[in-house]
Fold this sequence. Notes:
The structure holds 2 protein chains of 2 kinds.
Chain A: H1 5-8, H2 11-17, H3 31-34, H4 39-42, E1 45-50, E2 59-65, E3 68-74, H5 87-90, H6 92-97, E4 105-108, E5 116-118, H7 120-138, E6 139-143, E7 146-157, H8 164-176, E8 179-183, H9 185-189, H10 191-201, E9 218-222, H11 226-229, H12 235-242, E10 246-250, H13 256-260, E11 263-265, H14 272-285, H15 291-297, H16 311-314, E12 321-322, E13 327-328, H17 356-359, H18 396-404, H19 409-416, H20 420-432, E14 440-444, H21 446-449, H22 454-467, E15 477-480, H23 489-492, E16 499-500, E17 504-505, H24 515-522, H25 532-544, H26 568-576, E18 582-586, H27 590-593, H28 597-604, E19 609-614, H29 619-626, H30 628-632, E20 643-648, E21 657-660, E22 665-669, H31 682-697, H32 706-710, E23 717-718, E24 723-724, H33 726-734, E25 791-792, E26 820-823, E27 828-831, E28 909-910, E29 932-937, H34 953-956, E30 963-966, H35 968-974, E31 981-985, E32 990-997, E33 1004-1006, E34 1009-1011, E35 1013-1017, E36 1038-1039, E37 1051-1057, H36 1065-1077
Chain B: H1 5-12, E1 30-35, H2 44-53, E2 79-87, E3 134-142, H3 150-154, E4 160-162, E5 168-170, H4 180-184, E6 191-192, E7 199-200, H5 206-210, H6 216-220, E8 226-230, H7 231-247, E9 254-256, E10 269-273, H8 293-319
Parallel strand pairs in B: 1-10
Antiparallel strand pairs in B: 1-8, 2-3, 4-5, 6-7, 9-10
Helix pairs in contact in B: 1-8
Amino acid sequence: MKQLPLIQSWPVVRQLTGDDRAGKASAAKSARTANLKARTQTADRVVKSVCPYCAVGCGQNVFVKDGKVIQIEGDPDSPVSRGRLCPKGSASLQLTTGDARLHTVKYRPPYGTDWQELSLDEAMRMVAERVVRTRADTWEDEKDGKTTRRTMGIASLGGATLDNEENYLIKKLFTSLGIVQVENQARVCHSSTVVGLGTSFGRGGSTMFLQDLQHADCIVIEGSNFAEAHPVGFQWVVEAKARGAKVIHIDPRFTRTSALADLHVPLRVGTDIAFIGALINHVLSTDSYFKEYVQNYTNASTLVSEDFQDTEDLDGLFSGFDAEKRAYDFRSWSYEGAPAAPASGQRDQTPGQAEAEESGPEGIQHAGRGEQHGSGGTAMEGQPHTDPTLQNPRCVLNVLRRHYARYTPEKVEEVCGIPKETFFEVAQALIDNSGPERTSSFAYAVGWTQHSAGSQFIRAACVLQLLLGNIGRPGGGIMALRGHASIQGSSDIPTLFNLLPGYLPMPYAHHQTDLESFFQADAARKGFWANMPAYMISLLKAWWGPAATPENDFCFGYLPRLTGSHSTYDTVMEQIAGRCKGYFLLGENPAVGSANATMQRLGMANLDWLVVRDFSLIESATWWKDGPEILSGELKTTDIATEVFVFPAAAHTEKAGSFTNTNRMLQWRHKAVEPEGDARSDLWFMYHLGRIIREMLAGSTEERDRPILDLTWDYPTEGPTAEPMGEAVLAEINGWDASGKQLSTYLDLKDDGSTACGCWIYCGVYADGVNQAARRKPGTEQNWVAAEWGWTWPLNRHILYNRASADPDGKPWSERKKLVWWDADAGKWSGFDVPDFEVKKSPDYRPPEGAQGVEALSGIDPFIMQADGKGWLYAPAGVVDGPMPAHYEPQDSPVQNALYGQQRNPARIVFPAEHNRYQPSGDTAGSEVYPFLVTTYRLTEHFTAGGMSRWQPYLAELQPELFCEVSPELAAERGLTHGGWATLVTARGAIEARVMVTHRMRPLRIQGRMVDQIGIPYHFGPNGLVAGDAVNELSAIVLDPSSHIQEVKAFAADIRPGRRPQGAGRPALVREYQERAGVTASTGTEI
Amino acid sequence: MAFDLSALGSFLRSDDPPEAGGYPDPAPRVGFFTDTSVCIGCKACEVACKEWNAIPEDGLTFTGMSYDNSEHLGASTWRHVAFIEQQRPMGAPSSAAPAAGGSGGPVDLGMPAMPGGAGAPAAADDGSGDRTGLRWLMASDVCKHCTHAACLDVCPTGALFRTEFGTVVVQEDVCNGCGYCVSACPYGVIETRKDDGRAWKCTMCYDRLGAGQEPACAKACPTDSIQFGDLDELRVRAQARVEQLHEAGVPEARLYGADPNDGVGGDGAFFLLLDEPEVYGLPPDPVVTTRDLPVMWRNAALAAGALLIGLAVTFLGRKR
């Protein structure tokens, strides 16, 4: 037969001569089939990468052949994802190699009606020129007699989808140029997380990591659609469930998360504090809290000042509220004997304090100061008085008892619409699964953060988890689920106006003229935050190198100063007011993704120039041509002077860099291929923009140009595009000593200028000159902590505050829940995770009288970033709208607050503007015009504002149209037809969506009447393969006062059958509703 | 008789693969076990399949069938996630479950909701918004890679073949688009593509199997709802999972397609379901459509033989 290959190739011959007589198997196999090879097998190389979508940080293997990416799939070695990918991650080949990608620069001249082509070099030169010109035109040396050294004429937005190194260059370059309005998606998504977690525990990141969820005995998912928004992370919930854990999902909608939960609890949107408050009350009143934990590790025994008055005394207000300034002076909230407010009045940057007296409406109370607790608690002086017997009515535990006494199961029924039996089932599950032998976890996301009291939603969970003793222990904690590849990183290395890297505060223009007063104001006396001067001076050395000397305060004066809030929403107001003239959008699409899309576009229409860096022509790049205001006639293309530059961005496979995932873990991505055409990384863009600007300004004698000219800006470049080397930037972030040796821990940072470090909490990521973020020891070869995969801040500690996993004597609370413990023989802490504690500090250690700094922390102080080393049940400072969370109704609500006379959060930030009207609330006449509650959300199949999913056919076909979810009851009431159209109207806008009638939505009985809720995903916009109205046309700009996050998870609207009017009819409909509801400029702005 | 009827049978119908396929040292048969009890309906399987196999996008249509916009398996949808919204009265047997699509009527098979007012769920009678036993079932469907595969039996060109892994694959270089397989499939899986006319379906990533890699869908699946492996081992694992669920108070858990004695000889891709198969759009009792062919041919042969004998008798009789 071997001699007859040709004949043998005939199937029929094979059939007759071989064993496959039926001719349906081996005999039928064609030559092509026989020679098929998997392209994963024939690739030239496999490059290790990380998924660019959400913050789970799934490992990716990128297969490259002939310089092209031919396949992207999960990396089985990853301990987080174990080789799995969600639909978006699975579509990343299409994302990076599909034909939706732009490859050339697009330019729209002032008043132009169409795009023009521009060379990359020319475009870079033009942008640099505009920055220099606008900066000079709008330069502000001082304001109201105080040095500011800045420009309010330029702003940027974006960073959460970018690498840490890119965020670092953005912040460094723009700050040196005096640009303070630097913001990113972290403001819009999770800024309240930083405040909530940071003030409670000392750090603003998730207290645990995804893989540890498998050890939970009960998981409460609330304010998150975990399975849909973080599908691959959800495997750890499934794992926990398989091990017997109870999974509870508390959410207004029955979602794909609810489908896998043991219990779904529908609640009215925006009432989570009422629910958690009742759980706190139940745990306290039944004495179910973890006594030894609470006694030793929290501030339960600390006494609160006699001046403090609770919401119980003031019908929903705490003491210290100034109605005129719409802000609290929280001096009366202090501990007895230890004012968190400074005795001297020097620490005026703490929100809501003395400076409010001088700074008026733009004051510091609105300056987002709470976020500095991202890695360091609130500063405090003195020794607070305590009552270890917990008998004193003013000790925190009893203050808490009193505050939450009115949060009863009956109130939960009335406010949240949750039946008593269901409430008790949740309470019992948590109590049964907490204590020495068991732990429970909470997982949340933007369902909690995006409220006008968002920081307090997070705080409520912190209080409950502290009472149950679930922080710092395996399977316990609070999992903050972040939704962008590096949104944790863009908070840590903040492209945020109020922060410097490592949660160091940006200085204010008031008293902080020199470093000394800056430290005086913000450094804590106790705990690790006391070392703040070393972190700050090392940062200044990293930025200004040899120019930074002790004599010139290490160039502290080079930093531009804040005078109030300069958040992204304030920037929009600045744009509309004509003061902000240049705008960079770096991977962000505010025309769809930010609250009140109309305001976003009107702001952009008032700019001199706009730079957009993205993959495709997103709505924020084309609004001047086809935006809703053009279609309605409110704006005319030929009247719009804004110059628009669109630069094609490089994809995650086309650049090297690190993302920080939701576990606080940095993972390095290697570059797989060169970007095509004009596509470039943001590292490239920032570096070369800075280079060109420095060349233009070279030789300048202007004082304002010193910071940019003295800046260390000499990164090595490589390859055909002169791409800066990301590892060189990471090395600077890590820092080095005077000899140039890479540092391995922030403990080695000095305040004498001998060390340089770009971000102190990342110090150690380049220890020993090795990129620790690139470590990839397979998860299967390590314990579940997987310490040798990537690098987790701080100092590779995975479960924060893990000292609390041991009892006060240093012994694990139980064998089942052991994590780290005191090894008396060795005289050190050891365990499965890196101890989040001084490794040689014995549990018996007690600080000597008058101890300062780290020395002042005792052996039973697990919360080492806190000034008192304790978890804060009561926050005497740091959260500007109250020391304990209280329930208020959302800004626009059809329901009256059943808990207090105070309807809305009194300290919330409102922006009364023509296109940002608020609605009557509760019992106020006119609120019935907008009778339904709306909540916005994500779908698995799409990503945020759609820029990375609506252009991808494989994702677009899975969810091809905007729809709204309504209950059958609401459909019957309003005549809505399943599959038909509906129009939603608020005081801001009107949109249309297809109708999905489903039992998964249900009306809830609230205060004796049925209240209906509408769910609507916010991914759509007019551009892309699949289009729809942007849901943020409906939402208002109203902000949480601590973090400046917008309230988009709960607002009120009307819904009616049929499509919305087109053209000018659309704003006319909105006006008609406003008139009917009696909406005026002042509606909803009352306290 | 000169005919070997059993040989005829094997010619017309596949036997237990892959032993009979003429492969030297055949590997153990592989398959999928799809555990729908942990499916989160993310559709990673659909996308990973399309990416790997470069399948075209096939329709940007909002169907209103819960979150299912792919509608069904087809030439360009080789993995399909079904979404079934249910509200079960407490204590009622699962088969009596009214689905999202069924708000009334005497017979309700619990099929997925269809667009249009008629498919819309009804409000609670008392307007109280009460929901009892609300469930959202999700299940990723795929070609079953039947033990007795009718598509394979009827393929006249040899385009469909049984691989050395025991899977059933269409060879795109051989298929002539006759479409016999389309009507033969008892599950409605295989379909011809309108633009090129050829028949397409899941290959269980034949090329990846050759490289020792698992199929793209199973590899991506975030919760391991789709498991790939040796079929025998998967069946054992699946049985254990059913028992675990029964103990955990989920009596409705059952396997579908795992029984080697069912109408298709057992599926190479089988499922753990939480309700009757019809609820998921699966046939309750699939039978290989070529099952009766051997009998039919035997009967035809007998009839032909009888006719011949009759003729012979007639002519022989005349000679006498």
